[in-house]
């Protein structure tokens, strides 16, 4: 419910010139990030980061991917 609230709020705001990325973990099928991205279609957000789907808890590789995701976001925001 909290993600759905944020999606609804963002769609209502229709922000411009804002970058976005979607990440999440899953247990059965990696459908959550696609659902969030689809729900935000037309919101005005520009998806410039590669989506991250991690099965169950992130292990070393997953944590490294998340860390790099954060670094990419920081670089984009600071540029």
Sum this structure up briefly.
By secondary structure, the chain is α/β, with parallel strands linked by helices.
What does this structure look like?
The protein has 79 residues and is of the alpha/beta class. The protein is built from 3 helices and 4 strands. The chain has helices at residues 2-13, 32-39, 60-78, and strands at residues 18-20, 23-26, 45-47, 52-55. It is flat, with a radius of gyration of 13 Å.
Secondary-structure blueprint of this entry?
Elements: H1 2-13, E1 18-20, E2 23-26, H2 32-39, E3 45-47, E4 52-55, H3 60-78
Parallel strand pairs: 1-3, 2-4
For the structure shown, list the relevant keywords.
single chain, 79 residues, alpha/beta, two-stranded parallel ribbon, 3 helices, 4 strands
The low-pLDDT segments are none
Net shape: flat
Q: Say how many strands there are.
A: 4
Give the ordered list of helices and strands. Answer: HEEHEEH
pLDDT averaged over residues:
90
Strand order within the widest beta sheet: 1-3
Q: Structural class, please?
A: alpha/beta
N-to-C CA distance: 33 Å
Strand content: 15-25%
Compute the CA-based radius of gyration: 13 Å
Q: Fraction of residues in helices?
A: 40-55%
């Amino acid at each position: 419910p909290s993600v759905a609230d944020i999606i609804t709020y963002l769609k209502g705001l229709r922000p411009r010139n804002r970058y976005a990325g979607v990440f999440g973990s899953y247990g059965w099928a990696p459908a959550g990030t696609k659902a969030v991205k689809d729900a935000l279609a037309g919101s005005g957000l520009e998806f410039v980061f590669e989506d991250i789907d991690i099965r169950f808890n992130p292990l070393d590789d997953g944590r490294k991917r998340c860390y790099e995701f954060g670094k990419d976001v920081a670089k984009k925001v600071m540029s």
